[in-house]
Write a structure and sequence with these properties.
With 328 residues, this protein is of the alpha/beta class. The chain folds into 2 domains: 131 residues, Probable inorganic polyphosphate/atp-NAD kinase, domain 1 (Rossmann fold, 3-Layer(aba) Sandwich); 132 residues, Probable inorganic polyphosphate/atp-NAD kinase, domain 2 (Tumour Suppressor Smad4). The chain has a 16-stranded mixed β-sheet that branches. The longest helix has 21 residues. The structure holds nicotinamide-adenine-dinucleotide and adenosine-5'-triphosphate. The site of adenosine-5'-triphosphate has 15 residues, from strand 1 and helix 3. It comes from Micromonospora craterilacus. Its cofactor is a divalent metal cation.
Length: 328
């Protein structure tokens, strides 16, 4: 057997049923003379058509990655290929799906557009986080909190080596422009355009010290220092616990430009949907509770229109849609 023309890697959500999409990708990749890989740990969730490889060999072989899941899965896929040019395509199996553009019903169209070169690459910056000799990456945010839940944390801030005050409260968030719509937004921080390289610092429930958001430049060197001589703090990268910040120790955060390329088909439409999703987050009702307010006949009509639109787009082979944005 000859060399595959290209190799695609799958990163899958731990529990969501993604097999239909795996089958579509598998058929497509094999028809085009490519190879499809998954990490050994994910193999039981994707069926026998996908070659399982050891985690450390996986990334080296990839020409592209497809994430089947929500924002968390997408962040994990992005972290895998950080610093490489490997494009990442996100298929949304999540509830919010802020970072992922393609709904499962748009997957075939997306793959066709991908091989036709009909897409753009959206670069995302990330944080390089250094804690002593240890390093990690975050695409959304780094959060420093007390090591015990519900206790307050005291954190000193240094920017470019100069002391800039301290935080005392539940936590302090440092976010990239991508992460500005996640925890930072929930904590009252500003939304930052991806075209404005910057580091935003936002306190969570501040008791004293710095009590509002600060937006720093993309090349500023940020250091959080644990001023205590007794207690450790803990820190998280993209919502995942990473380690402890020992008494007296500093955590350095630097923004790295263009660390990963995300595949986009309709960047303007995607941005428009992000804005709608963001405004929905501010409503006091969950989406299912909002639906209860819509009269049944309107709901049925909306479902019918959505199905007709998806079918028309499938036949046209043009840009898909996951339905019209909800009325604001
Ligand atoms: N109070 C909060 O809002 C809160 C608390 C902890 C963590 N988080 C966020 O969760 C992120 C990790 O995401 P996850 O999906 O693994 O965890 P998760 O499953 O706990 O999801 C948190 C929510 O944040 C959304 N989200 C993730 N990245 C986003 C982004 N860039 N813009 C807008 N929304 C986004 C997700 O879709 C999800 O609804 C962390 O980076 C952090 O920003 C938020
Ligand atoms: N391949 C994976 N392996 C291990 N954990 C994962 C993987 N994919 C996702 N997770 C974790 O599972 C959780 C939920 O994943 P994800 O955010 O993708 O789905 P969701 O919560 O349903 O979607 P959304 O974030 O859009 O609401 C996250 O905390 C994420 O870090």
């Amino acid at each position: 057997m000859g060399q595959p023309r290209y190799t695609v890697g799958l990163v899958v959500h731990p529990v969501k049923p993604v097999l239909d999409s795996v089958r579509i990708i598998s058929r497509f990749v094999h028809r085009h003379g490519g190879a499809l890989l998954v990490r050994e740990d994910d193999a039981p969730r994707v069926g026998p058509d996908v070659e399982a490889v050891a985690a450390d060999a996986f990334v080296d072989r990839l020409d592209a990655v497809v994430s089947l899941g929500g924002d968390g899965t997408m962040l994990g896929a992005m972290r895998l290929v950080v610093g490489r040019s490997t494009p990442v395509l996100g298929v949304n199996y999540g509830d919010v799906g802020f970072l992922v553009e393609v709904p499962p019903e748009g997957l075939e169209t997306a793959l066709n557009r991908l091989v036709a070169g009909d897409y753009t690459l959206e670069p995302h910056s990330c944080f390089q986080v250094l804690n002593g000799g240890e390093e990690c990456t975050a695409f959304n945010d780094v959060v420093i909190a007390a090591s015990e839940p519900l206790q307050s944390a005291t954190v000193d801030l240094f920017v470019n080596g100069a002391r800039h005050g301290y935080y005392r409260g539940d936590a302090v968030i440092a976010c990239t422009p991508t992460g500005s719509t996640a925890y930072n937004y929930a904590a009252g921080g500003p939304v930052i355009s991806p075209s404005a390289p910057s580091i935003t610092l936002t306190p969570v429930a501040p008791m004293s010290g710095i009590n509002r958001s600060v937006v720093l430049g993309g090349s500023d060197a940020v250091e959080f220092r644990n001023p205590s001589d007794r207690v450790s703090l803990r820190f998280m990268a993209d919502g995942t616990p990473v380690g402890l910040l020992r008494p007296g120790v500093g955590l350095s955060v630097r923004l790295i430009d263009d660390a990963v390329n995300v595949v986009r088909f309709e960047p303007t439409l995607h941005e428009q949907r992000q804005r709608v999703k963001l405004s929905l987050l501010d409503l006091p009702l969950r989406p299912d509770q909002l639906l209860d307010l819509v009269p049944p006949q309107l709901r049925e009509r909306a479902e019918q229109l959505r199905a007709e639109r998806i079918e028309a787009e499938r036949l046209r082979g043009g840009p898909w849609s996951d339905g019209p944005p909800p009325a604001s």
